[in-house]
Write a structure and sequence with these properties.
This protein has 268 residues and is α/β, with parallel strands linked by helices. It folds into two domains: 180 residues, Rossmann fold; 78 residues, Trehalose-6-phosphate phosphatase related protein, domain 2 (Alpha-Beta Plaits, 2-Layer Sandwich), CATH 3.30.70.1020. It has eight helices and 13 strands. Strands 1-13-12-11-2-3-4-5-6 form a nine-stranded mixed β-sheet, sandwiched between helices. Strands 7-8-10-9 form a four-stranded antiparallel β-sheet, with helices on one face. The longest helix has 17 residues. The structure holds magnesium ion. The site of magnesium ion has 7 residues, from loops.
Length: 268
């Protein structure tokens, strides 16, 4: 994995030559990771850059997050961009509307699991359960480090006891465990869907996808866009399918700022 700025000549050329679909994760990519999800505010300077990007000719902007749709919308607070929530299970904005169909039986099982998990974690400090509809998330960022294996064990056991393997699957993110519908869909699938949709909405233009994210769930998008676009991991602490890395959210801001100046300087 290379530092993106070390390959800037190549990136600059691509950005100037082709229209862009820029897909950005939210937590840890646009906003620094905070102790609780509610505290992960979008920095003002980043919001200004996103607004400028959305207004730039030849730029389509999407924020693709694991947060619920209303949550990610209110955290970013901009019009004229595409939002995708729950790891790509939903998307809307800028002429886009997408929602994956969820079986009613799944919703019933998750309602039951939520009650059981709330009961089991009642005395565990630092665990926050969030029903993101249709996802159910168990956040443990505030928990005692020594207790994390136990928190994970309770989660695994409870899900196993629910015995609905065909309907639910679990995913591990940064300091979060999630129950999701067992559907073959992820951030990679929604990014491909958005790319196809945008290309057809805009006369088959050769749009270049750029994806920036820091989480394990972003690896699906890195895999989908391998050899098709520019993939960027935020941080460099782990092995990744991304081509490039940017070390933190400030570097993401710097990268987006460069795109704004390239796109406003030269029309594509
Ligand atoms: Mg993230």
């Amino acid at each position: 994995m290379k530092n993106l700025f070390c390959d800037w000549d190549r990136i600059q050329l691509l950005v100037q030559q082709r229209p862009l679909l820029i897909c950005l994760d939210y937590d840890g990519t646009l906003s620094p990771i905070a102790p609780t999800p509610g505290q992960a505010i979008l920095p003002g300077k980043t919001k200004r850059i996103l607004r400028a990007l959305a207004a730039s000719p030849g730029v389509f902007l999407a924020v693709v997050s694991g947060r619920s749709m209303p949550d990610v919308k209110s955290m970013v607070g901009l019009k004229n961009i595409v939002y995708s929530g729950n790891h790509g299970f939903e998307a809307e904005g800028n002429g886009i509307r997408f929602k994956l169909r969820i079986p009613a039986a799944y919703n019933r099982i998750v309602a039951r699991l939520e009650r059981t998990l709330r009961d089991k974690y009642k005395t565990t400090r630092g665990v926050v359960i969030e029903n993101k509809k249709p996802f159910l998330a168990v956040h443990y960022r505030l928990a005692d480090k020594n207790n994390i294996p136990n928190i994970r064990k309770i989660f695994r056991q409870t899900v196993k006891e629910a015995g609905a393997k065909q309907l639910i699957r679990t995913k591990t993110g940064k300091m979060v465990l999630e129950i999701q519908p067992s559907v073959d869909w992820d951030k990679g699938k929604i990014v491909q869907w958005l790319l196809t949709k945008k290309r057809s909405m805009h006369g088959g233009q050769n749009i270049l996808p750029i994806y920036v994210g820091d989480d394990i769930t972003d690896e699906d998008a890195f895999g989908t866009l391998r050899n098709k676009g520019i993939t960027i991991l935020v941080g460099r602490s782990r092995a990744s399918g991304a081509q490039y890395y940017l070390s933190d959210t400030d570097k993401v801001h710097a990268f987006l700022k460069r795109i704004v100046s390239l796109k406003s300087a030269k029309k594509t």
